[in-house]
Amino acid sequence: MTERHESVLLHFFVRTFLAPFIMLFALYVLVHGEASPGGGFQGGAIFAAGVIISRLSLGLNQGSYSFLSRKTLLILACLGLGTFTFMGIAGVLFGGSFLNYGVVPLSWLDYIWPGDLGQRQMGIFIIEGGIALGVFATIILLFDFLTFETKGEDVP
Amino acid sequence: MIWQLEFALYFLILISAVTALTLRDLIAAIAALSTYSFLVASLLALMGAVDVSLTEVALGAGVTGVLLVGGISLMQRRSID
Fold this sequence. Notes:
The structure holds 2 protein chains of 2 kinds.
Chain A: H1 8-31, H2 40-56, H3 70-93, H4 109-112, H5 119-146
Chain B: H1 3-22, H2 26-47, H3 50-72
């Protein structure tokens, strides 16, 4: 294995020009998922790629990262799964079947965020956000655990 | 659908798959595998399945390659067999 060298210019270029536009495209894919190709899974995966590319430009075996630590990522992944499950159970609580968002009263969200979204579309949007959060956190967790050599210490 | 383009894509997919199987340098094999995934994604986009194609590009060509490179950084680079 050859000697690794750190490149400050590469990291600066990736962090300043590449990663923000990848994340912006991921948000576009996520929000326009119901009108055009895309959705929660793709948006979350592209967003995770934006974070991973800035971590990769630092070089492998960096130890723990300060931006999104593993504990934060684990909490985010559980939050995404919890959002999905909560939205599914909310349909049962309001008298419908499981994952039936049409009966959940979400119309008051239109006052906060103006738009012509119906209840069902707002429910689908919340579900997509949960999926994106879960996929995003899980992919970065996979990268973190795979590229970090544990030298006999406990993995948090 | 343009059949010449589709035929060329099938040919390139075959070439990149055989290249990924026969290479001894594992990093180069990962590069060939990412090329294979990207070509499959463009074939899917030609067929009209843009959603599947987007997933294939994001996961197959992007994240899987990064994860495999991370895995290879923990072991030796050249294949033994």
